[in-house]
Amino acid sequence: MKLLLPDIVENQLKRELRAAGRREIGGVLLGELVGPGVFRVAEITVQRTGGTSSTFVRIPRLHAEAIRAFFQRTGHRYERFNYLGEWHSHPSYPTRPSGSDLRAMEEILCNAAMAVNFAVLSIVKIPTAASFEISSYAFVPGTRYAEIATISDQTPKREPDWRSAGRAPLDRMEIRRW
Ligand SMILES: [Zn+2]
């Protein structure tokens, strides 16, 4: 599994991290499936409140509207555009999941209402004003979580037209909820 991070989202994260200082902030990753096991972060939601220097707890109702709007904008094509996972900052700690981060991800996987069969957690920080660090982890029920590659996605806005290649990669994939 790989995560593509568009520079527009990376820049948004940097701005938010700078503004939050030593306080943890976070939100939801909304993704696009772009190939087998490859997801692009399409959008993020941002919750600036509720975090301390060592904890962040996401309050679901603060994100529900943004998630609904994302589904609306992407035409409810859940097999391509869907909830991808969570992100938060570790201004004072390495970008590795804490014990409570692991428990929170377990709860998401077990939450029948969320109906996810995997979830990503990205942890971000700006060690210095000019740098940016992100580590992403995949959580799959019944397996140990694993770090996955996060790749800067600098591609121009215009997508290459896969239709001209004579086949639709997404159409060949089994349609299921992530
Ligand atoms: Zn954490």
Mean pLDDT: 89
CATH topology: Cytidine Deaminase, domain 2
**Topology as a string of helices (H) and strands (E):** EHEEHEHEEE
N-to-C CA distance = 13 Å
Unique ligands: zinc ion
Going by CATH, the homologous superfamily would be Cytidine Deaminase, domain 2
Largest sheet: 7 strands, mixed, barrel
Number of domains: 1
Q: Supply Rg.
A: 16 Å
Notes on the structure:
It is a single chain. The chain is an alpha/beta fold. It has a single domain, classed as 3-Layer(aba) Sandwich (Cytidine Deaminase, domain 2), CATH 3.40.140.10. The protein has 3 helices and 7 strands. It has a 7-stranded mixed beta barrel with strand order 1-3-2-4-5-6-7. Strand 6 and strand 7 (146-153) form a beta hairpin.
List keywords for this structure.
single chain; 178 residues; alpha/beta; Cytidine Deaminase, domain 2; seven-stranded mixed beta barrel; 7 strands; globular; binds zinc ion
Question: Any chance you could write out the topology, listing elements then pairs?
Answer:
Blueprint: E1 2-6, H1 7-20, E2 26-35, E3 38-44, H2 61-73, E4 81-89, H3 99-110, E5 119-125, E6 133-139, E7 146-153
Parallel strand pairs: 1-3, 1-7, 4-5
Antiparallel strand pairs: 2-3, 2-4, 5-6, 6-7
The structure holds zinc ion.
